[in-house]
Amino acid sequence: MFTGLIEHLGTVVDIVHDAGGCTLIIADSAPILDDCHVGDSIAVNGACLTVTEFDKEEKGGWFKVWLANETLDRTDLGERKVGDQVNLERAMGAHVRFGGHFVQAHVDTTATVVDKKPDGDSLRILFQLPEPTPERPSLLPYLIPKGYVAIDGTSLTITSVDDANRTFGVMLIKHTQEKITLPKKPIGSKVNIEVDMVGKFVEKSVQAALGGGGGPLRALVEKVVEDVLVKKGVIH
User: Fold this and answer.
1) Of 52, 122, 157, 189, which one is the catalytic site residue?
2) pLDDT for position 201
3) Catalytic-residue membership of 236
4) Fewer CB in a 10 Å sphere around the end CB: N or C, the chain?
5) pLDDT of residue 98
6) Is residue 50 among the annotated active site residues?
């Protein structure tokens, strides 16, 4: 579990692809390796990855992770190049203050940066989601103004949603711009998206209650519908 509060920016220094996936080595990472162990989880641009090797001192502190083809397909990590910076966050400790939102670092899809506009010291960024498919339905039902979304692992507040154009926007204050990679991404680039998992749980629970043939929630919904129909004179 993560919070979406980025701890540090690391630098990709080595990439090895093969038929099974990809290995990344990320350097300049010493500040997050002081309590690291092989097998620990680190969110890299919002994707939860397992540390397979690390060194706290060499190359400013580096660690190695393995990306399966599923991860490469779901995220933008397969497009990273040597020298690119990436957002890093360690798994949340029980002793720390919970300042973002519940982030699993299980990326749902990528979105495309379609617009960037300064707003005083802040920066407004607009993203477009891909066309939905049967395998990957639309994520728009989980995106609401003032709701949460994780973009490249950063917990951000949604400022606008346009269902017709499959777009949504966020605004980055100056402090946030200095701590993450997102402001540096040009229009047309991809970002990793994870929607708020609470919305997914609520949707599944409601579907189960309404489709399960009974239960208090179904009875409540039926009573509300009946009251509306009575008021409209459809039934008596």
Assistant:
1) 157
2) 82
3) no
4) C
5) 65
6) yes
Buried b (16+ CB within 10 A) or exposed e, 105-116: bebbbbbbbeee
Count CB-CB contacts under 10 A for residue 205. 11
Separation CA 214–CA 41 (nearest Å) = 41
Could you tell me if 152 and 45 are in contact, meaning their C-beta atoms sit under 8 angstroms apart?
A: yes
Q: Is 2 an annotated catalytic residue?
A: yes
Which residue out of 22, 30, 48, 111 is catalytically annotated? 48
201 is catalytic: no
Catalytic one of 11, 23, 27, 41: 41
36 among known catalytic residues: no
Tell me which amino acid residue 32 is. I
Residue 48 is a catalytic residue: yes
Which residue is catalytic, options 11, 23, 50, 159?
50
Interval 50-91: pLDDT, tens: 999 999 999 999 999 999 999 999 999 999 999 999 999 999
Task: Tell me whether residue 112 is one of the annotated catalytic residues.
Answer: no
Backbone dihedral angles phi then psi of residue 63, each to the nearest 5 degrees: -145, 155
| Per-chain mean pLDDT for the chain | 91
